[in-house]
Design a protein that fits this description.
single chain, 347 residues, mainly alpha, 4-stranded mixed sheet, elongated
Length: 347
């Protein structure tokens, strides 16, 4: 057989007598295959035999596998506070237990880690849509408006950072689902511009709901993507953050609008309590998980008392807003523990 001509691993010119299996393998690997007669002249082309090309591809595959392994070790070192030797041993032992190649397990772990990060960030967009409205209502009620404005700016920056990172993490159809989230965020930004006014609150709330709905669609798409279903506990954790902010938003909006439906607050309470019980019953074991749950329980009890006292006016409402922030911090910490757990990474 005549030599194979290769410009680089993505463009290959084959002689007429090249085996069909070789051409099919190159196409499957993403190469552009030309007839040898179509190969342009020039010193940049490299001449090699089919055997040499196969050896080159094998070397490239070995390098690719090594890169996945290195990336997986980095994830474990970051998430599990391990040194390099411990991370490698954990990978090797898990591969043996799963009866799979180390490189395949490493690839899965990295992809699962990125998927979990995408789920966390998409879930955060839901929560932030309600947090922004909660802070808007807080400012309208005169409850430390300067602090509310600072937290609004921080929430907006967090949304922007999430969108940028999600654009890096998502590909193909999933990136298409991200587009409506970006558009909804643009509409909410526009609605929130200017000095807070009560007359604008319904329009702003509707824009926040659009961002919430689009983010829900992204979370659903991420949940369904891939062969493995993501850990249900992580999905629940991200939803609890949303519910914690929506509860307080509903309580504050009710203070501003007597016609606001009180049933929305009651339904939110019931949903939060049911999800919290599900979280508690989940069979997950990870360092720091119990203390994270305990912190959520404490802050939830305080917030619940604040919701009952919220009709007491300014001081009670101000205390409710502070408790809402503390519960959100506790839920953020719980979400991070679940996101970094081995069961999430290796599920």
């Amino acid at each position: 057989m005549s030599p194979v001509i290769a410009l680089h691993p993505l463009r290959v010119a084959l002689p007429p007598d090249a085996p069909a299996a070789l051409q099919q393998g190159l196409l499957a690997a993403g190469c552009t295959v030309l007839a040898q007669a179509e190969a342009p002249t020039g010193t940049e082309w490299v001449l090699c035999s089919a055997q040499e090309w196969a050896a080159l591809q094998a070397a490239r595959q070995q390098l690719d596998e090594r890169r996945w392994t290195e990336r997986a070790k980095g994830v474990l070192m970051q998430c599990q506070q391990l040194d390099e030797a411990q991370a490698y041993k954990l990978l090797r032992d898990a591969a043996m237990q799963a009866q799979t190649r180390l490189s395949e397990l490493a690839r899965h772990l990295v992809q699962q880690h990125e998927r979990a990060e995408a789920l966390e960030r998409a879930g955060a967009q839901r929560m932030l849509s309600q947090r922004l409205l909660r802070l808007q209502a807080q400012a309208l009620l005169g409850l430390e408006p300067a602090a509310a404005a600072a937290l609004q700016a921080e929430s907006a920056a967090r949304i922007e950072a999430n969108l940028a990172r999600l654009h890096e993490l998502l590909h193909g159809p999933l990136r298409e689902v991200l587009g409506p989230v970006q558009q909804a965020w643009g509409r909410l930004q526009q609605a929130l511009q200017g000095e807070p006014r009560r007359a604008d609150l319904p329009r702003q709330d509707a824009a926040a709901q659009q961002l919430l709905d689009c983010s829900e669609a992204l979370v659903a798409a991420l949940t369904e993507a891939g062969q493995e279903r993501p850990p249900r506990l992580l999905v629940l954790c991200t939803r609890q953050r949303l519910l914690s902010q929506r509860l307080v938003k509903e309580a504050l909006v009710a203070q501003l609008d007597p016609a606001h439906d009180p049933q929305r607050l009651a339904l939110g309470l019931d949903e939060f309590l049911r999800a919290l019980q599900t979280l508690r019953n989940a069979p997950l074991h990870s360092p720091g998980l119990q203390s994270a749950f305990d912190a959520v329980d404490r802050e939830w009890d305080r917030l619940l008392r604040g919701l009952r006292q919220g009709s007491g006016g300014g001081p009670a409402l101000r205390d409710l807003c502070e408790r809402s922030e503390r519960l959100l911090q506790a839920l953020d910490a719980l979400t991070q523990v679940v996101q970094r757990s081995l069961q999430t990474l290796l599920s």
